[in-house]
């Protein structure tokens, strides 16, 4: 089966011109035209990234392959596009329940990027979930789910989750890996198609940048010398002048002969005979110019300084509007009566000085939304300064959302926003500085994992739960974090937890229990009910927190593509072991002793309740926080009665006041369409 994959060429021409090879070089391979900078032999291509391998000339129908020799090229256009014949991943189940091989496929390029708008990641199957991730590393990972009860449920021409699903992937991708999975074991004969497919296929137009000859020139912009861009002689081809025409390199000029006036252009005033009595004497003109030259220099210098200053002011004003400053001012002005402290508006000069002109040695984190620098303010405060990546309106709204959300939070376990700067090309956020990295670093680093004992882990979990409970229940307007994960939990020098990164958070009106939104978060932590219905509520944070609890217990990552299929999803792997009463086989080595064994078991039981498929079956974040605080107190003072009810334990929650520092983490934003309710039931049976 052949699928067309569109790849963007990093250099191309702006207009469609006839394919032209380098002089003395082959311009075709079979029916494929090969224009320069591509070529098939030494000296005929720009560099190794533009080498096309053509099969033996004795063949009646030679095949062109790109560089490696095994990726067939279907078309090359100087408009900036190359089409390949790509591969597809396939997985089938036999009536015996055995799975066929070949359930993954890889595709990688050295130079060119795969169009993220002209291609779609497509999955076909009736019990299939598939992932596509970066070929070269861990820069991205996304996927989708396709299910159906039987083939009659599938609607021809649609691809929204019933038998077929599609999703996009980020810009700049040069390769990918595709893997297929299913939820059921299929030990019985199916009454529908037992095969699943995953592939990348061409879809719609994509943006790019192209090579072209400058105005006034024509030819192939990729070739040099007499074979490349050549000057157009407008005087011969256009005859644009009514007077004298002078051809220039890339342009032309018209003038009138002596004794005539006008500009000489045919489509303008042309040339008319000049009145000789009104001609200026050249000597008088030269004398007047000389007398005024000194004063003119002074005026020009003054005007230049004034214009430069006004230009700088206008540039800052443009950046302020471009970065959503007016919207942010409106949002913050509504809060001034309610909150005693509002974020400070820093100047560009203040933050430039604080970061030593954004010295690379002061970078403390990089992620999907920007770069984080360590900064030193003039009042000796150490801060974290996040330089956002703004590319479209949705990201501007996300930046404003983070400022508005954080300005309403005052809690000791939430990182504190100090202010922002909107005068630069990209907006800057200033946070308190948290100096000990992320919880993710400590859990998954062999050298650091031993630094956080079980007592510290239990306290960090309780502090994080308390902060999330505050967001859900005690904030002036309820806040759903929407990206709870260990990488967004910072630790200070005493290992106190600080919840951070509110770029994806949402304010929930008090009269609403859930919101319909585009699914956003990080794979492995995403609430499956939220993924399938797009209905966001506070129980979505509860599920994500449950995954963090399992990370603290097991020391494993939430999603691991390098592990066997049954161990890739930490949540499902943990639940299966807990159900089989094999809990302590997955608990991190050295974490359990006779003094904490029962507490570990209770935390694990709490994690399984947080990971319930249906949100209504999960506890609230407040209940989770109180239970963890109760377990902390019981472990610290064993003589305390373990049967405290929720009301009696409520005072154990941490103080709902305080402050917080920002870090940066990479999130994968994945969008899904809402599916029918029975799909959720199928997922529950699979788990």
Automatic annotation (TrEMBL):
<dbReference type="GO" id="GO:0007166">
    <property type="term" value="P:cell surface receptor signaling pathway"/>
</dbReference>
<keyword id="KW-0723">Serine/threonine-protein kinase</keyword>
<dbReference type="InterPro" id="IPR049883">
    <property type="entry name" value="NOTCH1_EGF-like"/>
</dbReference>
<keyword id="KW-0808">Transferase</keyword>
<keyword id="KW-0732">Signal</keyword>
<dbReference type="InterPro" id="IPR001245">
    <property type="entry name" value="Ser-Thr/Tyr_kinase_cat_dom"/>
</dbReference>
<dbReference type="InterPro" id="IPR045274">
    <property type="entry name" value="WAK-like"/>
</dbReference>
<keyword id="KW-0547">Nucleotide-binding</keyword>
<dbReference type="InterPro" id="IPR011009">
    <property type="entry name" value="Kinase-like_dom_sf"/>
</dbReference>
<protein>
    <submittedName>
        <fullName>Wall-associated receptor kinase</fullName>
    </submittedName>
</protein>
<dbReference type="InterPro" id="IPR025287">
    <property type="entry name" value="WAK_GUB"/>
</dbReference>
<keyword id="KW-0418">Kinase</keyword>
<keyword id="KW-0245">EGF-like domain</keyword>
<dbReference type="Pfam" id="PF07645">
    <property type="entry name" value="EGF_CA"/>
</dbReference>
<dbReference type="GO" id="GO:0005886">
    <property type="term" value="C:plasma membrane"/>
</dbReference>
<dbReference type="GO" id="GO:0005509">
    <property type="term" value="F:calcium ion binding"/>
</dbReference>
<feature type="domain" description="Protein kinase">
    <location>
        <begin position="358"/>
        <end position="640"/>
    </location>
</feature>
<dbReference type="InterPro" id="IPR000719">
    <property type="entry name" value="Prot_kinase_dom"/>
</dbReference>
<feature type="signal peptide">
    <location>
        <begin position="1"/>
        <end position="19"/>
    </location>
</feature>
<feature type="binding site">
    <location>
        <position position="387"/>
    </location>
    <ligand>
        <name>ATP</name>
    </ligand>
</feature>
<dbReference type="InterPro" id="IPR000152">
    <property type="entry name" value="EGF-type_Asp/Asn_hydroxyl_site"/>
</dbReference>
<keyword id="KW-0812">Transmembrane</keyword>
<keyword id="KW-0325">Glycoprotein</keyword>
<dbReference type="InterPro" id="IPR001881">
    <property type="entry name" value="EGF-like_Ca-bd_dom"/>
</dbReference>
<dbReference type="InterPro" id="IPR000742">
    <property type="entry name" value="EGF"/>
</dbReference>
<keyword id="KW-1133">Transmembrane helix</keyword>
<keyword id="KW-0677">Repeat</keyword>
<dbReference type="GO" id="GO:0004674">
    <property type="term" value="F:protein serine/threonine kinase activity"/>
</dbReference>
<keyword id="KW-0675">Receptor</keyword>
<dbReference type="Pfam" id="PF13947">
    <property type="entry name" value="GUB_WAK_bind"/>
</dbReference>
<dbReference type="InterPro" id="IPR018097">
    <property type="entry name" value="EGF_Ca-bd_CS"/>
</dbReference>
<keyword id="KW-0472">Membrane</keyword>
<keyword id="KW-0597">Phosphoprotein</keyword>
<dbReference type="InterPro" id="IPR017441">
    <property type="entry name" value="Protein_kinase_ATP_BS"/>
</dbReference>
<keyword id="KW-0067">ATP-binding</keyword>
<keyword id="KW-1015">Disulfide bond</keyword>
<comment type="function">
    <text>Serine/threonine-protein kinase that may function as a signaling receptor of extracellular matrix component. Binding to pectin may have significance in the control of cell expansion, morphogenesis and development.</text>
</comment>
<feature type="transmembrane region" description="Helical">
    <location>
        <begin position="285"/>
        <end position="307"/>
    </location>
</feature>
<dbReference type="InterPro" id="IPR008271">
    <property type="entry name" value="Ser/Thr_kinase_AS"/>
</dbReference>
<dbReference type="Pfam" id="PF07714">
    <property type="entry name" value="PK_Tyr_Ser-Thr"/>
</dbReference>
<feature type="disulfide bond">
    <location>
        <begin position="235"/>
        <end position="245"/>
    </location>
</feature>
<feature type="domain" description="EGF-like">
    <location>
        <begin position="231"/>
        <end position="263"/>
    </location>
</feature>
């Amino acid at each position: 089966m052949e699928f067309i994959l569109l790849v963007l060429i990093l250099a191309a021409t702006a207009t469609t011109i006839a394919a032209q090879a380098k002089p003395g070089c082959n311009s075709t391979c079979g029916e494929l035209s090969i224009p320069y900078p591509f070529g098939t032999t030494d000296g005929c291509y720009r560099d190794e990234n533009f080498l096309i391998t053509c099969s033996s000339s004795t063949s009646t129908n030679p095949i062109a392959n790109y560089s490696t020799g095994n990726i067939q090229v279907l078309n090359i256009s100087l408009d900036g596009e190359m089409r390949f014949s790509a591969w597809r991943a396939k997985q089938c189940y036999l009536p015996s329940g055995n799975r066929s091989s070949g359930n993954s496929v890889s595709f990688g390029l050295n130079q060119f990027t795969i169009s993220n708008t002209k291609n779609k990641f497509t999955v076909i199957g009736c019990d299939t979930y598939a992932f596509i991730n970066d070929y070269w590393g861990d820069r991205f990972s996304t996927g989708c789910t396709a299910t159906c009860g039987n083939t009659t449920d599938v609607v021809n021409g649609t691809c929204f989750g019933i038998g077929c699903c599609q999703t996009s992937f980020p810009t700049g991708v040069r390769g990918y890996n595709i893997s297929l999975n299913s939820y059921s074991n299929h030990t019985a004969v199916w009454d529908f198609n037992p095969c699943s497919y995953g592939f990348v296929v061409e879809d719609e137009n994509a943006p790019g940048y192209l090579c072209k000859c400058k105005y006034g020139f024509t030819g192939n912009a990729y070739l040099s010398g007499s074979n490349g861009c050549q000057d157009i002689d407008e005087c011969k081809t256009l005859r644009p002048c009514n007077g004298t025409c002078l051809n220039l390199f890339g342009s032309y000029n018209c003038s009138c002969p002596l004794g005539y006036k006008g500009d000489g252009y045919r489509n303008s005033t042309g040339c008319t005979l000049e009145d000789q009595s009104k001609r200026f004497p050249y000597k008088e003109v030269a004398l007047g110019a000389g007398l005024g030259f000194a004063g003119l220099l002074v005026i020009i210098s003054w005007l230049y300084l004034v214009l430069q200053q006004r230009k700088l002011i206008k540039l800052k004003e443009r950046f302020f509007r471009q970065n959503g400053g007016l919207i942010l001012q409106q949002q913050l002005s509504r809060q001034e009566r309610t909150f005693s402290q509002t974020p400070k508006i820093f100047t560009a000069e203040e933050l430039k000085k604080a970061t030593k002109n954004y010295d690379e040695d002061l970078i403390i984190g990089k992620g999907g939304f920007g770069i984080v620098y360590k900064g030193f303010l003039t009042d000796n405060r150490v801060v974290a300064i996040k330089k956002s990546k703004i590319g479209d309106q949705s990201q501007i709204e996300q930046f404003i959302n983070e400022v508005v959300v954080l300005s309403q939070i005052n809690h000791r376990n939430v990182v504190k926003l100090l202010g922002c700067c909107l005068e630069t090309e990209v907006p800057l956020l200033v946070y308190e500085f948290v100096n000990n990295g992320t919880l993710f670093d400590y859990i998954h680093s062999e050298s650091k994992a031993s630094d956080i004992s079980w007592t510290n882990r239990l306290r960090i979990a309780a502090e994080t739960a308390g902060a999330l409970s505050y967001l859900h229940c005690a904030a002036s307007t309820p806040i759903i974090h929407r990206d709870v994960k260990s990488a967004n939990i910072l630790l200070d020098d005493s290992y106190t937890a600080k919840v951070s990164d509110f770029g994806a958070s949402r304010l929930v009106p008090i009269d609403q229990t859930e919101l319909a939104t585009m699914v956003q978060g990080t794979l492995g932590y995403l609430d499956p009910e939220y993924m399938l219905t797009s209905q966001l509520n506070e129980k979505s944070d509860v599920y994500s927190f449950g995954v963090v609890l399992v990370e603290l217990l097991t020391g494993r990552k939430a999603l691991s593509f390098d592990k066997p299929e049954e161990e890739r999803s930490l949540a499902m792997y943990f639940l299966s072991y807990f159900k089989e009463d094999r809990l302590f086989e997955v608990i991190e080595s050295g974490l359990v002793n006779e003094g904490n064994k029962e507490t570990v078991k209770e935390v694990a039981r709490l994690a399984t309740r947080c990971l319930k498929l249906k949100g209504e079956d999960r506890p609230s974040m407040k209940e989770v926080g109180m239970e963890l605080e109760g377990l902390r107190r019981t472990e610290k003072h064993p003589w305390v009665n373990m049967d405290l009810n929720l009301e009696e334990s409520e005072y154990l929650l941490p103080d709902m006041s305080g402050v917080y520092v920002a870090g940066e983490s990479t999130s994968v934003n994945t969008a899904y369409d809402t599916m029918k309710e029975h799909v959720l039931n199928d997922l529950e049976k699979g788990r």
